[in-house]
């Protein structure tokens, strides 16, 4: 892992359970942590939407130092998107993340940015 490539300051958000004024359970986005990372685009796909609009779906690999709080908040088997990353006005929805070779040195976060 080359630390000099980590030149992007990203914010990682997760969903937090709260109660609203009607005492109902709601989920709000809350900042989990801010880390330095490297963002690399992987694949892209164009999709046609209604009314002749185009939607672009771009996947990225985001590499950062290993952070136990990120791994603790990550719930890979839930069917909801509960983590996302914000960087420079862009939002990336986290699909999955891995600890390469279980060395606890870095995290590889695979995310999708939908531009439409």
Description:
The chain is mostly beta strands and 116 residues long. Strands 1-2-3-6-5-4 form a six-stranded antiparallel beta barrel. The protein contains one helix and six strands. The protein has one domain: Thrombin, subunit H (Beta Barrel). The chain starts with 7 loop residues before the first strand and ends with a strand.
Task: Set down the secondary structure blueprint.
Layout: E1 8-19, E2 25-48, E3 54-65, H1 68-73, E4 83-87, E5 90-98, E6 106-115
Number of strands: 6
Helix content: under 10%
Instruction: Kindly identify the CATH topology.
Output: Thrombin, subunit H
What distance lies between the first and last C-alpha atoms, to the nearest angstrom? 33 Å
**Unreliable segments of 5+ consecutive residues:** none
CATH architecture label: Beta Barrel
Q: Report the mean per-residue pLDDT as an integer.
A: 84
Computed over alpha carbons, the radius of gyration is: 16 Å
At the fourth level of CATH, the homologous superfamily is Bacteriophage SPP1 head-tail adaptor protein
Number of domains: 1
The tally of helices reads: 1
Q: Class by helix and strand content? A: mainly beta
Cross-sheet strand order for the largest sheet: 1-2-3-6-5-4
- Largest beta sheet, briefly? 6 strands, antiparallel, barrel
Principal-axes geometry comes out as globular
């Amino acid at each position: 892992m080359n630390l000099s490539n980590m030149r992007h300051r990203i914010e990682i958000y997760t969903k937090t359970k709260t109660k609203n004024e009607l005492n109902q359970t709601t989920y709000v986005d809350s900042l989990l942590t801010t880390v330095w990372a490297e963002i690399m685009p992987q694949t892209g796909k164009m999709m046609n939407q209604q009314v002749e609009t185009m939607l672009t779906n771009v996947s990225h690999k985001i590499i950062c130092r290993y952070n136990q709080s990120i791994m603790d908040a990550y719930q890979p088997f839930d069917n909801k998107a509960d983590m996302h990353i914000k960087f420079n006005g862009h939002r990336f929805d986290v699909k999955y993340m891995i600890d390469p070779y279980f060395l606890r040195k870095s995290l590889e976060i695979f995310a999708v940015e939908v531009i439409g």
